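thought: user wants a sequence for this fold. calling inverse folding tool.
action: design(structure=
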């Protein structure tokens, strides 16, 4: 699955306590050759490590160990290297396996616990900043789920929608003197009201920024007959052919997406400046970590590719790297940024990712404080 498939309901399901052991395997991957040649070897090594851990764990029975290994082997065979992004996450129990390919790197880890390790999924979901695109015409509406890298058609909430095809009515045309305009026709208005109702339901269940694409009359009528279009953060006034591919649509949407990102970054910068002015600001990993743990962070802003390995000492974070890293030390956290993001979201804070070097003067991460 991709990061944008991680709904609140699915995350809750993944975090449920399971019979021990639930296996989580994470590793960085590469999108292109020649670097991606190492991914298969790294995966085999981690699978071997997972097998050795299961063999050595006295709490794992032979039956459970065999079932988990079978599920893990199935997961490995189903991994599609052509869809590789920046990380691979395999979640396995005796009864299931789940595969996630993420646009955010993750460290090499094999974890046996009574829950799945979800922090990398949550951080990738937050970074991907998923959005909706609705392509709409007078007789068809298609919903797309998008991230910065990809779009896919979403078959949910009744979408795609196609208007019922009415047979020509010569008597009606004779009465009004001409074939009626599509966008003054009552059937079209009714259809777009239905589109609006379905879209409002989707937005209520999975709130995301909404972009619209369609001819100007279609977009105007959708806004006139409903409410959902009024919340759109971007519009592309152009018809979308029925056979338009996801990659073609993403290319057409790119200017609107880039403009929205520029406005968003400026808005976040303003909120951070305002917080500094009233001394409700934290900057740097250690300060932001403390604010998140105390539940004081209202907004956490992170540079997109910020990752840091740390040692936790006396409730503070000490960055470590190179030869100083001992990943067997329980005080060492290899994915502290992802852990912080997950904790911030759990506490009700907003988490946003900004372009690299946006927060250089603040140690690449900053937060506004509730108190």
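)
observation: tool returned 371 residues.
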């Amino acid at each position: 699955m991709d990061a944008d498939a991680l709904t609140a309901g699915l995350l809750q399901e993944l975090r449920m306590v399971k019979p021990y052991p639930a296996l989580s395997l994470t590793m960085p991957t590469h999108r292109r050759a020649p670097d991606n040649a190492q991914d298969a070897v790294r995966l085999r090594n981690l699978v071997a490590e997972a097998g050795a851990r299961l063999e050595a764990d006295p709490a794992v029975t032979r039956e459970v160990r065999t079932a988990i290994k079978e599920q893990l082997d199935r997961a490995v065979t189903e991994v599609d290297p052509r869809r590789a992004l920046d990380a691979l996450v395999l979640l396995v129990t005796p009864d299931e396996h789940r595969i996630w390919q993420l646009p955010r790197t993750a460290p090499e880890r094999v974890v046996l616990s009574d829950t799945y390790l979800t922090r990398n999924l949550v951080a990738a979901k937050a970074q991907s900043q998923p959005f909706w695109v609705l392509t709409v015409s007078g007789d068809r509406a298609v919903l797309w789920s998008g991230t910065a890298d990809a779009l896919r058609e979403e078959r949910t909430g009744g979408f795609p929608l196609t208007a019922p095809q009415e047979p020509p009515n010569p008597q009606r045309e004779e009465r009004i003197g001409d074939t009626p305009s599509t966008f003054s026709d009552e059937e079209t208005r009714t259809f777009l009201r239905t589109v609006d109702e379905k879209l409002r339901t989707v937005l209520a269940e999975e709130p995301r920024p909404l972009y619209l694409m369609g001819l100007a009359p279609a977009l105007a009528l959708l806004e006139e007959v409903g409410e959902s279009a009024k919340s759109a953060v971007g519009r592309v006034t152009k018809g979308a052919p029925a056979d338009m591919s996801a990659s073609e649509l993403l290319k057409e949407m790119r200017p609107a997406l880039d403009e929205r990102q520029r406005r968003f970054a400026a808005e976040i910068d303003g909120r951070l400046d305002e917080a500094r002015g009233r001394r409700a600001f934290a900057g740097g990993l250690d300060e932001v970590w403390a604010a998140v743990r105390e539940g004081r962070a209202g907004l956490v802003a992170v540079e997109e590719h910020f990752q840091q390995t740390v040692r936790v000492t006396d409730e503070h974070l000490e960055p470590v790297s190179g030869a100083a890293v001992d990943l067997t030390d329980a005080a060492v956290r290899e994915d502290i940024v992802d852990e912080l993001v997950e904790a911030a979201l759990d506490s009700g804070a907003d988490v946003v990712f900004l372009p690299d070097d946006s927060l250089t003067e603040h140690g690449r991460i900053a937060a506004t404080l509730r108190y």
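thought: summarizing for user.
answer: Here is the designed sequence. Confidence is low (pLDDT under 50) at residues 172-180.
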